User: Which sequence fits this backbone?
């Protein structure tokens, strides 16, 4: 392996360290801003053709659930439970997609383990 100026492999120069640190700090700020943006939105998941809706924010906090009267059948409570779960899972999937899209703008599409 050839050694560049400063004795570092690949020609890395000590003077570039400051630039590298500035880039890392900028990326860290951009990531923090993107994370805040990802957490600040709300999504609505739905099931049963909108009979049940479930609203969550980007912090994965449940904000509200709406159940239309026609979704309530006292003889089939299990169906209502399934609709609520499906709506919640729909909202979670939307949050996951939005978070990945928001953060990939900062990472340039690079997947960073543990980030998403």
Assistant:
């Amino acid at each position: 392996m050839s050694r560049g100026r400063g004795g570092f492999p690949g020609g890395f120069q000590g003077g570039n360290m400051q630039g590298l640190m500035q880039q890392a700090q900028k990326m860290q700020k951009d990531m923090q801003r993107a994370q805040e943006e990802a957490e600040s939105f709300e999504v609505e998941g739905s099931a049963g053709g909108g009979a049940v809706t479930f609203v969550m924010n980007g912090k994965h906090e449940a904000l509200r659930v709406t159940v239309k009267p026609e979704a309530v059948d006292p003889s089939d409570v299990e169906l209502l439970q399934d609709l609520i779960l499906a709506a919640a899972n729909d909202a979670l999937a939307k949050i996951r997609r939005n978070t990945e899209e928001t953060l990939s703008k900062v990472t340039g599409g690079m997947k960073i383990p543990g980030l998403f």
About this structure: DSSP finds two helices and three strands in the chain. Residues 78 and 84 are 10 Å apart (CA to CA). The two ends are 36 Å apart (CA to CA).
